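Every protein is a chain of amino acids, and every chain bends into a shape of its own. The protein below has been through that process, and both of its lines are reproduced in full.
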Amino acid sequence: MPQADLIETQVYSISELTRRIRATLERVVGAIWVEGEISNLKYHSSGHVYFTLKDENSQLSAVMFRSDADRMRSRLREGMLVQAYGRVTVYEKRGAYQIVVETIQPTGKGNLQAAFELLKRKLESEGLFDPARKRPLPVFPRTVGVVTSSHGAAIRDFCRVLHRRFPGMRIIVAATRVQGDGAAVEIASAIELLNIVHASAQPCTIDVIAIIRGGGSIEDLWAFNEEVVARAVGRSKIPTISGVGHEIDFTICDFVADVRAATPSMAAEMIIRPRDEYAAEITQFARSLHRCAKLALGHRRHHLVELREALRRQEPRHYLRQMRQRLDDAAGGLQHELTRALKAHRQRWQQAATRMQACSPVAMIERKRARLQGFSQRLVSIQTYSLNKIRHRLELSGQRLEMLSPNATLGRGYSITMDEKTGKVLRSAQNVPQGKSILTRFKDGELRSKVE
């Protein structure tokens, strides 16, 4: 291969290549159903399940994580023929492709599960499962419509629980088949029939519809996964509760109904509370009503007393007595105000007299004379202080001048030698020639000499 081709060719690491293969595989294949025989089955201590799916010509590694494995009703077995639903991906560490299984069941149920998921996604996209459209069950239903088989154990359990909780509850059963061909259409027709009875109020209105059935396989419950049933439940003008199968069973009907119950018996429990609870609530309400009525009656009685007192106050004699009392109060108030005003005027007059006395010329002269005397005393004090300060400074200057004078230096044993003629101070012997007449001054006199 030419060198230029080597430079232009992109080289992948093993990890990069594996990631690209995984991304392509997940995008192109994605989640699918596969069928095969289980081999190399291993339940790990972590709860994950590892096994191989194989047929006559090929095999596929598979893993089912604990969160999905815990939902299985029974354990897997070696040699078991199953249909598995999951995502095809690549385990990068070994570079091997595998399927991450989410749901697994014996062969024969894969097509039903796929149809279930397809219809579920379709109805969910239409908003049929939206919590916003769910209606609450009535608080105190009087009539319950039931869509179920008239011969199954579900209707017996449902009625037994309902009558135990609230004896005398009216039940209208729209009997229908709950499995087999054509059962879904019958279930939908029964729901619509109960809505017609409710609209016509003949024989009575229906407060809630219970769609119930006992447990069974996915095939047995399939009628409740049909679109015709889901549409009928969605169109119902009456609130609906779905109690199909056991707690682990989920149907399309459960998702569309306003309320889901795990079993038919639980549906009966959710429809109405025990009569004793209603009786206790009624007793509590009665007590509360009695307390409220008593309190309201007390308020009304108090209001009546107030009105009677107000009417009594409006009586003419009472009004006249009040006016006389108000007149006496006004007269007393006027006298008080006059006394207070006179006292205030007298106080202001005294204050004015005091201010006028303070402004008298004699008082002003006395104040000025006192201030002048104070200024004179301060001036004398300032002059004396200034003279003492100047005298002290002169003494200090005289002392410093005396210390710096030549006589003070001569007094300490020093002398000054000068040129006799010029009087110039001689500071060095080298500048004095022989025969020079010099004058030496001491503290107590002078001495003339000649340099030899």
Notes: Confidence is low (pLDDT under 50) at residues 1-7.
